[in-house]
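Suppose you are handed a protein chain with no further information: no name, no annotation, nothing but its sequence. What can you learn? This example shows the usual starting point.
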Amino acid sequence: MFSLARAHANGNRYLLLLGSDILLRERGIVSALRTYPGPVIGMSESPATSSANRFFDHVLTADYYDAGQALAAVEAFERETGLRPDTVVPIIEMTVHVSVAIAGHYGLPTLSDACLARVRDKHTMKVAFEEAGVPCARHRLFSTLPQLRAAADELTFPLVLKPRDFAGNVGTIKVNDPSELPAAFDYCRNSLLEIAPTYNFADGRYQAEEFVAATHEVSVEVANHEGQRAVLAVTSKSKAGAPYFTEKGQLIPSPDSDNEALRQVALDACAALLIDRGLAHVEVLVNGDKLSVVEVAARPGGDGIMDLIDRVYGYSPYDIHIASYRGVMDKLPDLPRQPRGIGATVFLKAPAGTVAEVHTVNELTSQEVALYTIAKVGDWSRPQTSYLARDGLLECFEYGQPDEQDPVAFQARVDELAKIRADQLFTVTETAPEEGR
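A reasonable first move is to predict its three-dimensional structure. Written in structure tokens, the prediction is:
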């Protein structure tokens, strides 16, 4: 355990950071250690399994997806040491409700229960958008196949099915006509049930949305603080095609960065959901001047987006996120809009089969700033349907002014590098294991 000196000097208080121990969120730990005057504490069911946990002052042993278990661990730590949290900061999606529970118990700044109800359920989210005039797809709820058929009768095909409680494309699938409903229902439900034990999800919570035609999709990263809102960056998404629409990577700055209508829609979406603290990740479909908000997450964007903003614009978004949850800002800072370069992340995909070997790549180009492997020997390289299919990650960055950069050409170079690295990193066999990864 850390020395208690810093904790005592800080009034027996510490910052609790939830979810920054996983890949592509570790820079949240750096920000917390840099900006907070006392100990920074993490939480994990198995603290020894993530190397990132070594950088916390201490790690509480608990499941940070489980609000009851997490709060019990914080209370037990207080009884043992006399230390109490004075800030609870969520970094990933499934820690948002946990942060609200712990912060509410201790009377700390956090999102409201009304906000939580809107951001953690895609149905109440869509209803809030409709009431506020935020453009979004029409939708209906279903739990069973007969209910799905009835819901489809009230909508216009094509449709998109998805679980109400999760992100990362898990269970998302396009349906072109009524004949595809049974297979699509099975896919949506089975995908959710695969991860349900990890997150305590319940069966039967799904929705169908009308498919929105779009040329591309972006995300808008928004800072929120006590009624103030500002756009940090616009991110272009690299997507796989129908029927799964899997995210393959991210690029900053997006060619849509100066689209003022887009930026305003993102701000309006956060206001509709009552997000008044920390960062939010707003996903929007773009088709000319027509916009449709897909969903909003009340936490920093994933997939290395925060790291890209840091490289491209020269500041850490986590600093703003943490300061807002600490309640130490009077107003949001002025945020730079002039990029100093262009950056992208792309997820690596091994060929189909069982991963037999994972190799090391020692020589990288000057553009490549990070190369990680996710797949392990014995894993099945499943089809590219959701975040579960990611086998590795490549991050690239190049200095330059906007008039010197070609985002399309840069993305093409990064995509080509990703294919090369995947071939170098992974040897697979054609034999599939009995159960996929």
